[in-house]
Amino acid sequence: MIRYLVILKLVFLTIVPAVWSLDWENALKQLGDKKFAQVEAAVKVLGRSDDPRAKFLLETMLENKLYQMKRSKDLVRAEGKRNDFKTYDVFTGEELASGVKKRELKRIRVNNRIRSTLKNSLARIALGDPNPESRKEAAENLREGDPREVTPLLKQALIDEKSEDVRKSLRFSLATLQLKHPDPEIRRGSLSLLSGSLEPEVKNLLITVLEKDSDGTWIESETDIREQISKELENIEFWETVYSGVKTLFFGVSLGSVLLLAAIGLSVTFGVMGVINMAHGEMLMLGAYTTFVIQQLFPNLIEYSLLISIPAAFLVAGCVGILLERTVIRLLYGRPLETLLATFGVSLVLQQTVRSIFGPLNQSVLTPSWMQGTLEINPLLSLTYNRLTIIIFVPLVLATLLFLLKRSHFGLQMRAVTQNRRMAGAMGIRSDRIDALTFGLGSGIAGIGGVAMSQLTNVGPNLGQAYIIDSFMVVVFGGVGNLWGTFFGAMSLGLANKLLEPFAGAVAAKILVLVLIILFLQKRPRGMFALKGRFVEN
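Below the sequence we write its predicted structure tokens.
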């Protein structure tokens, strides 16, 4: 008995490969048949094979570059025109001959039906590709295939697939085909594959199924299936509303973070010295241009350019701030309107200086790879890495500044000058030195803000002008000289702008926010968090 089993096994192992080889060779010969039905059948045989050569052959055929040599009947890939064709081995790509005449070749004809079969066959082959992206693309390509042929293939692929991203594409492709099936039970089953999915293409598919034909009849004839589809669409629309609100909050917080970076330095200088510094926006500009210069000096360190630019921008803007205080501001203490005019003139000088050095056009600041792209939480919610980084960066700046003000000797002296300048002077604190260092600190923080803004907006001579008014609004609304007031003021203004924009538009939203701030200041002239002290009261 065992002897017969061994003989049968040997016969099976000998005959089956021979039969398969025969099918492969017959399919290759059949590609040159005059009848399109025979060609299509040959394509299907090749597509079902496990032979790796089938992929190259079918791709060549899909490109309309598959030819048959009239004499030898060999299949080749041919490129060229008229009497100057080059032929290549269809499987290896090796060049066979050049200068081949057109009359020596016979093109393998392809019509729309065969082209569709070719795409399905290639997708079938790609479902076994080790690359997940190739399998995902294959699943998408099979959505237009013949449901009778493709559905079993997709079901098996769904069982074998390990990647969740590819499984989503497989489920959607399978549901797309099953929704077209004449059997209502299969159509009902297809909805279970789509249940809970938030993909935009799922919503579009369900909307299409729920529409009517040109003659007024429903595309989906079953009432219960239409009701189930309607519930799925309501669920998708509900989550669209929820995640749209989350996106609005995210953009509001990111805008508030940008405003905080722009205003936090102004809050320090304005609160301590009472100086209306219209050149504060140019400190932001200097920080952004410092980032640009760093990238130009160290083109091989783009990934670390922002980390290098942060201390560099602080030093550059801080030194310019100290120079401004020592040469202009110190002569105008106690005269806020004159400081406004003087610093406005300084801002124009700084803008023109930058134009003369770097030119009037915006400069390109590159974004490191770790800040590029988006964090996709789900199909309806994606958060950009550059804004996320800034949202995380701002609390670090605020915490560092609070630590400096609350825990350092310089911070103690600066708070003393803020609360009562005369008493601080009587205690031996050099208020003029504190003024210069404070102005440098505020300007340096603005420079750091410019580094962050270089990743969100254009770097040009007018960069600071876009934020100076908003910065003053934040400082006055939050409370002059109060860091926590500046923080809450920036976040409040950022969120208010983004919440109003969908209803009123960007310009009207800014006007409404300004009106609301004016009304608020009528009730609380010193802002949300007013400082206390004789100097402040005076």
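The radius of gyration is 36 Å.
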